[in-house]
Amino acid sequence: MLDKPVKDIDLDSIRGFSDLLDAYLDSGGFMAPLVGKAYRLILEMFGGDYTVFLSFPADVVATGLRGVLRKLVEEGHVDIIVTTCGTWDHDIARSIDSYYIGDFYMDDVELHKRNIHRLGNVLVPRDSYGGAIERFMRDLLEYMYSSGVREASTYEMSWWIGERLDESSILYWAHKRKVPVIVPGPYDGAVGYQIWMFQQFKRDFKLDIYKDEKLLSDIVYEARKTGALIIGGGISKHHLLWWNQFRGGLDIAVQITTGIELDGSLTGARLSEAITWGKVRPTGREVSIWGEATTIFPIIIKAALESLRR
Predict the structure, then answer these.
(1) What is the C-alpha separation between 209 and 254, in angstroms, rounded?
(2) Longest CA span, the chain
(3) 174 neighbors 165 (Cβ within 8 angstroms)
(4) Of 97, 144, 161, 291, whose CA is between 20 and 30 Å from 195?
(5) Are the beta carbons of 271 and 287 closer than 8 angstroms?
(6) What is the DSSP pairing of strand 100-101 with strand 206-207?
(7) Which candidate in 37, 237, 279, 302 is catalytic?
(8) Which pLDDT does position 282 carry in this prediction?
């Protein structure tokens, strides 16, 4: 038990993020060693023969973390993404217009009067969201339909969307790199609502979610090793874990969450719990970090990319 002493962090010897996270490993308390472990596991995933899954909820796409997620896709470090419908929404809206910095304690009644949505401490002008997404999707769906498209998986819909966005977009790079972006709850958002509205008039148009599941099945059964980067929880986290159980579980998994496990929720559940369900291998390596992803994730990814480039 007493074989590893706590070491002070020596700022004078730290030359970059990778050095800092290496120092975290030996620093003792409290989340720092887990952040250091996550960095090492991610570095192994990116540098090894792993099929890398990435899952995240849509809210982080409304923040600057979008740039980090985009970078992972652009540089080819992730092989498949599982996310929510709001990722479609925010990626479209932010490619068209801007979101703005606010705070958690603004007057929400006043914001409502001014036609401004609040997402935590991010301000979203109503015209930059609902109306912009409606116009974008209406034009896209009409084009798809006139081109003879009658059905699309959610990953194909992600690529159709990405083809029309700019280089600031996660979906643009997913389309360019042919990284599947799967949305298992596709109607739970503005884009999904526009698809539903379109289907009211074009009854032969549909989303083929079975095609998404076929792709996931093929990926997990063909993968030599799988690794996962999991931000938050909910349907994105569960869908990623669910499919990996059919190959005996993930080999490596890293999770960042603000949830707690004491309410029995998946969002707060430690990844070690997933071992009992066969979703992480008993021999696999996992780490769960309790912290806010927009703060922690950029540091870990910066350190990993810094190490890979050395």
Answers:
(1) 27
(2) 69
(3) no
(4) 97
(5) yes
(6) unpaired
(7) 279
(8) 98
Residue where the block lists tokens 């899954």: 53
What proportion of the chain, given as a percentage, has pLDDT over 90? Answer: 99
CA 114 – CA 150 distance, rounded (Å): 39
Can you tell me the distance from the alpha carbon of 258 to that of 87, in angstroms, rounded to the nearest whole number? 19
Q: Work out the number of other CB atoms within 10 angstroms of the CB of residue 159.
A: 20
Q: Which of 272, 268, 250, 251 is nearest to 259 (CA)?
A: 268
Concatenating the DSSP letter of every residue in 214-263 gives HHHHHHHHH-SSEEEEEES-HHHHHHHHHHHGGGT-EEEEEEEES--GGG
Four-residue CA torsion sign, 253, 259, 262, 265:
negative
For the segment 161-168, the average pLDDT, to the nearest whole number, is 98
Q: What is the pTM of this model?
A: 0.97
**Is 71 among the catalytic positions?**
no
Phi, psi of 47 (to 5 degrees): -95, -5
